[in-house]
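INTERNAL TRANSFER SHEET
From: sequence group
To: structure group
Subject: ActR/PrrA/RegA family redox response regulator transcription factor

Please process the attached sequence and return the structure record in the designated field. Keep the field labels unchanged so the import script can parse them.
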Amino acid sequence: MADLSADIAALPDKTLLVLDDDAPLRTRLGRALEQRGFETTLVGSVSEALAAVRQAPPAFAVLDMRLEDGTGLKVVEAIREARPDSKVVMLTGYGNIATAVAAVKSGAIDYLSKPADADDVARALLARGDEAPPPPENPMSADRVRWEHIQRVYELCGHNVSETARRLNMHRRTLQRILAKRAPR
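Return from structure group:
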């Protein structure tokens, strides 16, 4: 963290917009990034984020992909128009290749899965030019990635176990057992 704080302290503009509709995560991530030296603005919706970008375009942004009132891609576009040199990192609880490609095409420099560590987010924001940030120190386990995917499909199916099992091509009872367990680490 000391190296990151020094790198952030050397920045001419430390403004950072954090957009996430999960208030505890947004607050925790915002505080952690503020402790590292960023000047954070925390917002919980696309409309709040667009207003914040119009008022003062940030040098950096950490945006959630899926929100109740839209998508973080809309905010990426607004930031790119207002401040082309801004660095944007997308966060999502439901990572997949299609959304990662869409995020990068819209102008994001990186795409991280939730829960993202503040150091990983800061490293992604501070990556220079074409240099890719280093891989995360503690990536999600394969079991956790699988569990996240199942939860996402379950949510998209309106919490209908039978429909979720059909879409995942698994037995309904197997799915019920997985859903009854706690999330793996």
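Handover comment: Residues 94 and 148 are 7 Å apart (CA to CA). The two ends are 23 Å apart (CA to CA).
Transfer complete.
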